[in-house]
User: What shape does this take?
Amino acid sequence: MATDADMSIEIAPKMQKSHALVSSVIKTPPYSYAHLELLSAGPSRMAELDVLQVRSYCTSALKQFLGATGMAVPLDILKVEGQSCWLRLPRDNLGAFAAAITAWQGTTQDGVHSTLLIRGCSDWLGALVGQQDEQKLWTD
Assistant: This one.
C-alpha cells in the first residue's frame, strides 16, 4: 500500500516572465496644480490673459489675503492660453492660494472688471488636463 509521502507530486515553481527592479509609491507629491480662468465684465469682455497679468493678479490676491507672507509663495506659470492658465505651487500652499484667489475681488481698469476663477485644483497635473473639454461636453 502506498503512503501519502510516496504519492506526493512535486510542482515545479512558476517561471516569472518579468521582474520588478524598483517600485516606489508617491504618497505626498511636492507640488500641486491649479487651473484658473479670467472672468471679465465690462464693455470689452474678450480680454485674454498673459503671463504678466497672471503673475500680477496672483501676487495681488496673495498679498491681500496673507500680507508679505503671501508674496513669498512661489508660483510657476505652466501655460497661459486664452482666458485660462495653469499654475504649479508647493503642495502645502494650495489651501492658502485657493482661499486668496477666491477672496480676491479683482481689478478694474478702463471700465473692465477682471477677476480669477478657480476651475480646478489637484495634486496631479493629469487630473486637470482635459477638464475644460469635459465641461464643454455637458454645457454645449
Remarks:
- The radius of gyration is 26 Å.
- The chain has six helices and five strands.
